[in-house]
Amino acid sequence: MPREQVLKDIKAAEKEAKDIVANAEAEREDRIEEARERAEKIRSEAKQEAEEMANERLEEAREEIESERERIVEEGTEESERLEERAEQRLDEVVEHVVSLFEEEVHAQA
Q1: Which of 88, 94, 83 is nearest to 102 (CA)?
Q2: What is the pLDDT of residue 2?
Q3: For 26-43, what is the mean pLDDT?
Q4: What's the 3-state SS for 9-59?
Q5: Cβ–Cβ contacts within 10 Å for residue 14, how many?
Q6: Total number of domains in the chain
Q7: Structure pTM?
Q8: Which residue range forms the structural domain that includes residue 63?
Q9: Rounded distance, CA 51 to CA 43, Å?
C-alpha cells in the first residue's frame, strides 16, 4: 500500500474516531439532560404530593379542632344550664333568707 493511501486511511480513521467521540459526547449530553428533566419531574411530583398530604393533614386537624370546639361549647352550654337551674331552685331560699335578715335588722332597730 502506498504511503499516501496509508495517510489517507489514517486521516479517515482519525476523522471517524473524532465523529464517534463527538457523537458519544452529544449522546452523553442528551442523556444527562434527560436525566435532569426526569429528576426535576420527580422532584416536582414529590413536592406536589407532599403539599397535598400536608393539606389533607391540615384539613383533618381543622376538623378535629372544630369537633373539639363544638364539644367544649356543648359542655359549657350544659354546665351553664345546670347552674342556671340550680340558681333558680335556690332563688326562693335566698329570697326567704334575705327577707329574714331584713326583718331581723328591722326588729333589732325597733
Answers
A1: 94
A2: 83
A3: 97
A4: HHHHHHHHHHHHHHHHHHHHHHHHHHHHHHHHHHHHHHHHHHHHHHHHHHH
A5: 10
A6: 1
A7: 0.53
A8: 1-83
A9: 12
